[in-house]
Specification:
The complex is a heterodimer of chains A (413) and B (159). Chain A is α/β, with parallel strands linked by helices. In chain A, 33% of the residues lie in helices and 16% in strands. Chain A has a 9-stranded mixed beta sheet with strand order 3-2-4-7-1-8-11-10-9. A two-stranded antiparallel sheet of chain A has the order 5-6. The longest helix of chain A is centred in the N-terminal third of the chain and has 16 residues. Chain B is mainly β and 159 residues long. Chain B has one domain: Nucleic acid-binding proteins (OB fold (Dihydrolipoamide Acetyltransferase, E2P), Beta Barrel). In chain B, the strands form 2 sheets. A 5-stranded antiparallel beta sheet of chain B has the order 6-5-4-7-8, with no helix packed on it. In chain B, a hairpin with a 5-residue loop joins strand 5 and strand 6. The N and C termini of chain B lie far apart (61 Å). The chains are: A alpha/beta (413), B mainly beta (159). At the A-B interface, helix 1, helix 5, helix 6 and strand 5 of A face strand 4, strand 5 and strand 6 of B. Bound molecules: zinc ion. The site of zinc ion has 7 residues of chain B, from loops. Zinc ion binds next to loops of chain B.
């Protein structure tokens, strides 16, 4: 059985707020083609298995996995879809290679979220229909408790827009979670605002980022409350982008002309989906990281991990996740930010890629975006944003509102 | 872009406008059915208790998520429709990102005598006040208008 698994190729599109010129299939093709050329492999000959990561409702059609083989080179080959974040796909690829049955496996995840015209309403679909969704004011039709009917007084919603204007935006749950985080840890709204300033500034050094901007803490603090204490600028904006990885066994690496970046540890965890009983802390990230640390033989993550790419789709999430990962004590992440520890030259550079706040929220591709930055840094390809002397990096994903699930992957040179 | 040619004319991309219809009939489930039938006739809630770990679920469930054991009918009981605000947020935008007619306060309410919580709308005169820890009670629709859904609770008010 192969002992080690490496990333041997990465490919990615530019990240753009919208991409009306390409179909989602062409978008995936671009990322995969780049990854295969990066690894020097022919998907029709060399790749043993293909994994895509997606969610039908984001895509707008059913059975996404049926629609993928052609654009990733997987027709009539082992191919499957993980309904989850890209890091879950990476973990599945790792396990497939560890079976000894597969030598080279490709993983793809993407966001083509600009194709979706009713983002907020699809977001509400992820809340429990019986116990959570009614509070958002959704689907107030005359026959609510019976068969839906479209009559004169409750017409079928129009494409892209319904006449139901009082349904609240699904991000409200992040407002509750942020309040919980601030109260428990003593972190301030200003410190969260500082995360936004840092990541959007970092994005200037990432040519693929979409939301780089030079702003101040005051700009963030003065942006309006949308889900108090969450302000408009605390929220990452949607972006389109596709990312592909090629993973290989230690034996296969020897035959390829590449510098391997080893996937040294992986972990994942899911909280109960019931808002009624789950914690508002990032326990999923805590447990996923402990699983990954154990696998990597990391006893002191703060010392052994050189840099981090963590989910920052809301500003507070970066700080909450750093603490959950054990990279900061409870209440310390904000202070590390204040003292410059999370900057490019700090002791724990964090989201140097620009993160989701700087690059954009790329949905199921978010975890792979974090992993991609870790690979770029470990390869020494960071250019202006290259962190000096890095050996071990951590990437962490969260499934997004309203989920309590996430994964962690640790890479090393 | 890996393609031989790229689009350079911004007016040229074409699309097909989809209008996916997605209506479902979500069964309340056995536990939900029992709860909502109760709420239809009463101004109180029901909870269920795991005999293994003593965790009290609201909304009530048929099984314990911690112990993975069934919760029997005898371990259901009536509880008041009151609780304490654990967290709250003020929502100002709808699903399209447009301003709501008026901001809504949504709270996570720890329901009294249980280990469970419920999302609820809070009606208050001063929406900017910190209401964490405040006692609240459910305000229901009048009994003849109840349908047996969570919407039978109109909102929560201060006690
Ligand atoms: Zn139990």
């Amino acid at each position: 059985m192969t002992k080690k698994v490496a990333v041997v190729g990465v490919g990615y599109t530019d990240f753009n707020s919208m991409t009306p010129e390409v179909s989602w299939k062409e978008f995936m093709y671009e990322a995969c083609q780049k990854a295969y050329i990066d690894a020097g492999v022919d998907p029709r000959e060399d790749i043993d298995s293909f994994i895509t990561c997606s969610e039908d409702y984001w895509e707008g059609f059913s059975i996404f996995d049926e629609f993928v083989p052609d654009q990733i080179g997987a027709v009539l080959r082992p191919c499957c879809t993980v309904c989850g974040d890209g890091l879950y796909g990476l973990g599945n690829a790792y396990m497939q290679i560890k079976t000894g049955k597969m030598n080279i496996v490709a993983v793809e995840a993407h966001s083509k979220i600009s194709d979706l015209l009713t983002f907020g309403d699809i977001g509400l679909f992820s809340y429990d229909p019986i116990f959570d969704r009614p509070v958002t004011g959704s689907v107030d039709r005359t026959h609510f408790a019976g068969i839906p009917s479209y009559e004169k007084n409750s017409p079928k919603p129009l494409v892209g827009k319904t006449n139901e204007k009082e349904r609240i935006h699904p991000y409200f749950l992040a407002g509750l979670e942020m309040q919980n985080f601030l109260r428990k840890t003593g972190t301030t709204e200003e410190q969260c605002a500082k995360v936004v300033v840092k990541n959007k500034k970092n994005a200037f050094n990432n040519p693929n980022a979409e939301y780089e901007v030079n702003i101040t803490i005051e700009d963030v603090m003065n942006s309006e409350y949308l889900f108090k204490p969450i302000k408009k600028l605390d929220i990452s904006l949607n972006v389109d982008g596709a990312i592909a990885f090629v993973l290989a066994s230690e034996e296969a690496v020897k035959k390829l002309d590449v510098e391997p970046i080893w996937l040294r540890g992986f972990g994942w965890s899911s909280e109960t989906p019931w808002i009624s009983t789950r914690s508002m802390d990032a326990n999923y990230a805590m447990l996923a990281s402990r699983m990954a640390y154990k696998m990597t033989d990391i006893n002191n993550p703060r010392k052994e991990i050189d840099f981090a790419e963590v989910d920052d789709r809301f500003s507070y999430k970066e700080l909450q996740h750093l603490e959950a990962l054990g990279l900061a004590e409870s209440g310390e992440a904000g202070k590390m930010l204040d003292s410059g520890d999370l900057d490019l030259n700090g002791s724990l550079p964090t989201n140097i890629s620009g993160g989701s706040l700087g690059i954009g929220n790329c949905f199921e591709a978010t975890g792979l975006q974090k992993a991609l930055e870790v690979v770029i840094q470990l390869r020494g390809h960071g250019g202006k944003r290259q962190i000096e002397d890095v050996h071990t990096g951590i990437s962490q994903s969260w499934r997004g509102i309203p989920s309590g699930s996430g994964a962690v992957a640790i890479f090393g040179r | 872009m890996t393609f031989y040619e790229k689009q350079t004319d911004p007016s040229s991309p074409m699309h097909w406008l989809g209008d996916m219809q997605a209506d479902y009939l979500y069964p309340n489930g056995k536990a939900g059915d029992k709860l909502f039938k109760h709420i239809k006739e009463n101004d109180t809630f029901l909870a269920s208790k795991c005999i293994n770990c003593s965790k009290i679920f609201f909304p009530p469930r048929l099984y314990c998520e911690d112990c993975f054991v069934e919760i029997l009918e005898k371990d259901w009981f009536e509880i008041p429709s009151t609780g304490k605000i654990r967290l709250h947020t003020i929502v100002t935008i709808n699903t399209y990102g447009e301003k709501l007619n008026e901001p809504k306060m949504i709270a996570l309410i720890d329901i009294d005598n249980t280990d469970g919580a419920l999302l609820g709308i809070i009606k208050t005169d001063n929406i900017d006040e910190n209401l964490i820890g405040r006692k609240v009670e459910a305000v229901f629709k009048s009994k003849n208008q109840r349908e047996g859904t969570l919407k039978d609770i109109l909102y929560f008010k201060m006690r």
